[in-house]
Amino acid sequence: MNNKTIAAVSTAKASAGISVIRVSGDGAIDISDKIFKSKSGTKLSDMKGYTCALGDVYTGGERIDECIATVFREPHSYTGENVVELSCHGGVYVTAAVLRAVLDAGAQPAQAGEFTKRAFLNGKLDLIEAEAVMDIISSRSKASARAALEIKDGALSERIDGIKAVLLDKAAHLNAWADYPEEDIPEISSEELISALTKAGKELDDIIKSYDNGRILKDGIDTVLAGKPNVGKSTLMNLLAGFDKSIVTSVAGTTRDIVEESVALDDIVLNLSDTAGIRTTGDEIESIGVEKARAKLETAALILCVFDSSKELSDDDMEIIDSAADAPSIAIINKTDLPSKLDEEKLKDKFKEIVRMSAKNSDGVRELIEAIKRVYAVSDLDSNLTLIYNERQRSLTINARNCVHEAIEALNIGMTFDAITVSIEEAIAYLCELTGERVTDEVVDRVFHNFCVGK
Ligand code: GDP
């Protein structure tokens, strides 16, 4: 354990109501006592954990700010160490001055993610739970935040631990049987082993599958709004984003560049690109926009093809339909408030989902959300919140699953129990790396490298 006392600003670096300067380590309370004087005269070192005091922070005899100091005593703190949190006024200058005072009094500046890293090293969180802390912070939708919180509280770790316990049990049995033949340990049957391993493999498969849902929740779906000029793409974008970002205009072809916006719709985040309307054009600047739009279409994870209900389908519309053929796509028939001229039958062959909307009147958003959920099969997100969120977790889970499959394969072709034990133990090692029970410093450093200072 590293006992040097560290400090950092744990709130955002911007003017705000309050800022919190977090101090953690053996010396956290004594160091804070050097700069903080409570109004009541009580020293922080005489205070119990989970108590706070109103007072002032001083540097060189000069008062910097009025603060509330909260004392946490090890091991009952976020990091598991002594912690003092100084809540001062959230001015950028004042916050920096309070941090400076703490550092001058003997604390070291905290590295990125160091508080959470200490929590991990002190056994307050496993590695999966620590990663979830970062995911809570970066969550942009309700479902994503809720899933990350569940994982922080151990939902995924418990599942992994359950699988690991089964594998450990089988490996221990096989080892005991091989190592102590004179002990009369009952031989485990192949059927029993295969059944247990198949169940473990299936559980790991389910967890691996959850990665796609995790990505959707966390990173959002890269979505392109495609459609001819004037069909109402910008209006729809603004409706979804909830505020005006791109220019809404009735002159054709004025959205010349790509406007991007992340919008949270219920459980899903769409990273929306409102592209220049695709159409054949002589205008040079507009044609650059059209090219960009085409490139976007090729990489999109979801294409919302917008059509004008009050117009018949044109060749340009047909071209858009063709360009959307390879990606999951939804047809949006917009302007349903106007008399209809569009032949919906022509769209039915091309799109599984057709949504009728009036972006102008804010009609149809709910239907659109439901259609997106059907396309992405995210309707069951609520019931499956123990998701894997990152590549590290995914690849370790896949490796563990592959080892379990190897063990099953070995059993099926009648290999010795030795060979099977090796595969099971390898699977266990991957799961231990996943939760951080057995992990190199390098991996730990890499995980926390992605955190920000103060976390
Ligand atoms: P874009 O070129 O596809 O981005 O289209 P805009 O969003 O700029 O809209 C073009 C015109 O259609 C504007 O005058 C909008 O007010 C109008 N418009 C957009 N959506 C609707 C709708 O649902 N109903 C009607 N009647 N007009 C709409």
Enter the CATH topology name of the largest domain: Rossmann fold
What is the CATH architecture annotation of the largest domain?
3-Layer(aba) Sandwich
Shape category: flat
Total of domains = 3
Ligand species: guanosine-5'-diphosphate
* Low-pLDDT runs: 244-256
Mean pLDDT: 87
Strand content: 15-25%
Count the DSSP helices: 15
Q: Percentage of helical residues?
A: 40-55%
Going by helix content, strand content and strand pairing, the class is alpha/beta
Q: Give the SSE order as H and E letters.
A: EEHEEEEHEHHHHHEHEEHEHEHEHHHH
Strand order in the largest sheet: 3-4-5-6-2-1-7
Give the termini separation.
Answer: 18 Å
Largest sheet: 7 strands, mixed
**The CATH superfamily title of the largest domain:** P-loop containing nucleotide triphosphate hydrolases
Radius of gyration: 29 Å
Summarize the structure.
With 455 residues, this protein is of the alpha/beta class. It is 45% helix and 18% strand. It folds into 3 domains: 6-126, Gyrase A, domain 2 (2-Layer Sandwich); 130-215 and 390-435, tRNA modification GTPase MnmE domain 2 (Four Helix Bundle (Hemerythrin (Met), subunit A), Up-down Bundle); 222-381, Rossmann fold.
Structural write-up:
- By secondary structure, the protein is an alpha/beta fold.
- The protein has three domains: 6-126, Probable tRNA modification gtpase trme, domain 1 (Gyrase A, domain 2, 2-Layer Sandwich), CATH 3.30.1360.120; 130-215 and 390-435, tRNA modification GTPase MnmE domain 2 (Four Helix Bundle (Hemerythrin (Met), subunit A), Up-down Bundle); 222-381, Rossmann fold, CATH 3.40.50.
- 45% of the residues lie in helices and 18% in strands.
- It has a seven-stranded mixed beta sheet with strand order 3-4-5-6-2-1-7, covered by helices on one side. A six-stranded mixed beta sheet has the order 9-10-8-11-12-13, sandwiched between helices.
- It is flat and about 80 Å long.
- The two termini are 18 Å apart.
- The structure holds guanosine-5'-diphosphate (GDP).
- Guanosine-5'-diphosphate binds at residues 227, 229-235, 248-250, 255, 277, 334-335, 337-338, 358-360.
